[in-house]
Amino acid sequence: MSPEEFRQYGKQVVDWIADYLGSVEKHPVRAQVRPGDVRAMLPAHPPEQGEPYEQVLADMDRVILPGVTHWQHPSFFAYFPANASGPGILGDLLSSGLGVQGMVWATSPACTELETVVVDWLAELLGLPAHFRTDSAGGGVIQDSASSAALVAVLAALHRTGTDGRRTIYVSSQTHSALEKAGRITGLVAGDVRTVDVHPETLEMDPARLRALIEEDVAAGVTPALVCATIGTTSTTAIDPVRAIGEICREHGIWLHIDAAYAGVAAVCPDLRWINDGVAEYADSYATNPHKWLLTNFDCGVLWVADRKPMIDALSILPEFLRNAASESGEVIDYRDWQVPLGRRFRALKLWSVIRWYGAEGLREHVRTGIALADRFAELVAADPDFELRAHHPFGLVCFRPLRTDALELMERVNASGKLYLSHTKVGDEVWLRLAIGAPATTAAHVDAAWAALQAAGRRISPGRR
Amino acid sequence: MSPEEFRQYGKQVVDWIADYLGSVEKHPVRAQVRPGDVRAMLPAHPPEQGEPYEQVLADMDRVILPGVTHWQHPSFFAYFPANASGPGILGDLLSSGLGVQGMVWATSPACTELETVVVDWLAELLGLPAHFRTDSAGGGVIQDSASSAALVAVLAALHRTGTDGRRTIYVSSQTHSALEKAGRITGLVAGDVRTVDVHPETLEMDPARLRALIEEDVAAGVTPALVCATIGTTSTTAIDPVRAIGEICREHGIWLHIDAAYAGVAAVCPDLRWINDGVAEYADSYATNPHKWLLTNFDCGVLWVADRKPMIDALSILPEFLRNAASESGEVIDYRDWQVPLGRRFRALKLWSVIRWYGAEGLREHVRTGIALADRFAELVAADPDFELRAHHPFGLVCFRPLRTDALELMERVNASGKLYLSHTKVGDEVWLRLAIGAPATTAAHVDAAWAALQAAGRRISPGRR
């Protein structure tokens, strides 16, 4: 495709996306297709001759859109949001257009240096400590996800223990499954990912139980490597007591990783910085995902470390073909040693685009809007005696449950309607519904309509309700 | 940013990229900046207020482009190509515009099902065996890179051994460092990634040495888990004897992973399918990267497995919030269990765009052009007694060295000129230069100019040369 053909088709694709974004509400939120439906509409074999790009765009409407669950729909409330935004899309487009691969500084210095600048910017925007900045012994890096960030933290922590003997890592029952997966990937055997009890109401990790487990393990000759504390758990946005956990970690020389994948970006609002209490003093690593609630297209997760050395020592292997003068000078960062894969896209462009377009003010406004809408929804739930509201944390997630209707049946009914999409979790044996607000297109009207749809569905399932 | 603002700025960005692609030759191939130059041009702090997008585009010209090493430049010959193409960029743009996250089938069925279709298409285009198709016990998946594909293969292989005891994996001195990294990540200790000797001339893994090592390890009570054979090594595009290696793996029940990251896509040409001899009979997994030589923007690596079960067993963890009826029906693929991270972009769109725009014919033509240009360059080298040509494989990489000049000095001189960019490797103690052809914009004129620049630089360094 020549540059001029790209110019022509590129504008058609931009129009297609602008039309899509402007009309996303006309689609059912959750795809209505059944397994195999999309595949059945596609040719079984690849084309022998090339096709005009118009045919791809026609198939986007005919084949792809009906099979898409619309994460940018204003009534998408399932999981946490995966925000896209105009500047996020454009930053990704610039990255694709340049087509550079920034595995080491020398293969595109701007890819590395813009990344150090924007992760430092983000650390400042979130009020994170100076030792997470890249001009310190620590630094930040963009990963594809908080799963990968957790894996890197576990690898650094295991390396830092300086032993190949039995090591353990500590999570709670509320910790994201990515930590268990990281444990499994890094070769920990079953039981070495230790689950600490949580407070039965708040679902926060119990520091006394953590201490007891660690002391038990140390006495048994095991080396505790890492504790993961979560700020805003996936299930209910619970906040682990980072300071108390951090003190225990410090006593025992254990790596403290903070998984703030969803909620961390809320600290763009100074009045929410308290969620990070203890991070500056105790955290060895901290992960949050601008691709969740900060308007930056997936994938863009940021990992900061207080000391980059154990991470680089754990991950660096230098084959001859990557040797170069800049790396050997020690003056540059080679981000390949800060991640699992070798290759890397120029992801900093999208975060840069987003921060510049919205500014700190715009980012705060976006987070505050989501929180205000969640508060609005929580008030609606609280006022209905047929529903129970779960005490909630100051983010965009509301957990609630119907008292006279099966929660999963209610959820399936509204999700199947295509009007909104929400998800569920379990606390003990109780099923709770999760309504996560945070898409930039969501307004009070969408929240009110979601509530009306839930109430109506509840009444249809259990006509005896008030 | 509203849809209408996106429409407006999106077209500006498309114009910017079209202009860039149309004029990429005016830039020095390798960035001419020094460490810190890019950073110094950027503000130390994020903006408080948002900025017009025009300012981002202006900074693309002012700050970013001077710091970019231009991977799409027709005279970029370092590393393997990381091809971008118009339809690749547009497919990525469509993915960004939709902003879906396809961690499980239910979160966007089209994301999963288009992926199964395009990886099946690619398997057909490359003549890979039917048991790699997703309608078999095996299947294909898009990973970010061959590093991650190798890590997944190692995890599946380790899981399949059914033991937590000492396991080993086997590579050669020519295997990509990603395998050593995968070994380290998965908790293998030093020495458990075993290096098999290669033939001193061809640099192919020696099956007799492989067999001896395996038998030695088995006798010592170790469980051999995986052998990685490479089709087209990074250093010199050597091709390991897959069939002979496969027979040994079969005898001992060892997982055979094929790393064909760069060269695998050459099999779009039927006359090159011999490079995969033995794959159909013996390979448990096979990885190749359309993002290298097949016109699909980074990141797009494809991993196929002959049996998906050990991979899924190794990687699947199901938290409550991801439970859904479709997954429980067993009728769908949840690609989160085929990779390390949980979240995933809609990467199939770019591979789909590329295959449809070029068609099988266009893809073959692209590969053949690269090979013909490499042959042309090799002939030029062979005709000059001041240079030595290394016997080369039928791909786009030419390895050669100057006989009267220091190879690294020659390389640094031409790279610093900005006229072309090449890299080096070592075979034993000998330094060889690597010139990898494969960018779609590269023509015979660029290859001839590269050769002229190398000859001239050689003459300047060693005026006594003929």
TrEMBL record, chains A, B:
GO terms for molecular function: aromatic-L-amino-acid decarboxylase activity; pyridoxal phosphate binding; transaminase activity. Pfam families: Pyridoxal_deC (PF00282). InterPro entries: Aromatic_deC, PyrdxlP-dep_de-COase, PyrdxlP-dep_Trfase, PyrdxlP-dep_Trfase_major, PyrdxlP-dep_Trfase_small. One of its GO terms (cellular component) is cytoplasm. GO terms for biological process: amino acid metabolic process; antibiotic biosynthetic process; carboxylic acid metabolic process. The modification N6-(pyridoxal phosphate)lysine is found at residue 292. Its cofactor is pyridoxal 5'-phosphate. Keywords: Aminotransferase, Antibiotic biosynthesis, Decarboxylase, Lyase, Pyridoxal phosphate, Transferase. Belongs to the group II decarboxylase family. PANTHER family: GROUP II PYRIDOXAL-5-PHOSPHATE DECARBOXYLASE (PTHR11999), MIP05841P (PTHR11999:SF70). This is Aminotransferase class V-fold PLP-dependent enzyme. It comes from Amycolatopsis acidiphila. The lineage of its organism: Bacteria, Bacillati, Actinomycetota, Actinomycetes, Pseudonocardiales.
